[in-house]
């Protein structure tokens, strides 16, 4: 287990239910049983459920190799499942793309798979400074500088990128990060009576640490920091 907020039985049940839901949604699309006006919502559900399952498997202590295999499948559902367009984007959709980019860095997926994520983002016309930093760390030809969409929530990453001060990052994660996530749909999900909790992880912080190659032993036991995702290939 990588989180102490739920036990393994909880996560195993959650992951099984998610797998069954995805199979049901995919069969409905394949058979034509899904009404046309429901297709976009169903495709979004397939994407988000798949991504939640990836994070849940990490939370539950599954091998990172299995997390990686599932993540590659999620990339295939990103194009029709993510809802970001032009200059306007909801906070939840912003975070979903941030997770995709961050996990891609942490898992060190190959360039071809990474470019699939970037293509979805570019086709949406949406730009963001935090996204730019992550993408340019992987592809130097994508070195652009955009404004931050959510500076209050994610400006700490830009500051960390400039200073490389790991103690400042730890202090932010300890005292502020989770509180800043209150507007999200998953905030306090561990208190929900239904099985909807998949984990609380600042995947973006870990991605920045990996990009900067900063010594992070002080964060090994930080509750929101996915330490072994940064180090699993070292």
Automatic annotation (TrEMBL):
<dbReference type="InterPro" id="IPR015025">
    <property type="entry name" value="PoNi_C"/>
</dbReference>
<feature type="domain" description="PoNi N-terminal">
    <location>
        <begin position="4"/>
        <end position="118"/>
    </location>
</feature>
<protein>
    <recommendedName>
        <fullName>DUF1911 domain-containing protein</fullName>
    </recommendedName>
</protein>
<dbReference type="Pfam" id="PF08929">
    <property type="entry name" value="PoNi_C"/>
</dbReference>
<dbReference type="InterPro" id="IPR015024">
    <property type="entry name" value="PoNi_N"/>
</dbReference>
<dbReference type="Pfam" id="PF08928">
    <property type="entry name" value="PoNi_N"/>
</dbReference>
<feature type="domain" description="PoNi C-terminal">
    <location>
        <begin position="127"/>
        <end position="229"/>
    </location>
</feature>
<dbReference type="InterPro" id="IPR028983">
    <property type="entry name" value="PA2201-like_C"/>
</dbReference>
